[in-house]
Amino acid sequence: MGVFMAARFIRDSAETPGYVIDLLREHMDWFDINLDRPMRLSKSTRPYAIEIAQCWFLPSAFEHIERARELAALLSEYTFPVSMITTRRPGVIVYRDAVQIAAIPFRR
Description:
3 helices; 3-stranded antiparallel beta sheet
């Protein structure tokens, strides 16, 4: 599960305190404004495609990475373990913009 999915999970939980929801909303609002949603996450144009891409920040996306680290720290404080994954070979790229790519991982 990525940081954005985890943030939504915690934000939408009935057990999450209001101040945590506010902090999560603040971070999520920033990403909503400053990060485009990939137009496609599959090699296929069919809506029921099986292979779904994983999204990665480009190394040059300094501000986005820093904000994601802040979000990850908040999730970790709320007992949701987070680790950063890096790779030089993300897979078949199906989307790219100035700060991110979406890639379908290579089969191992």
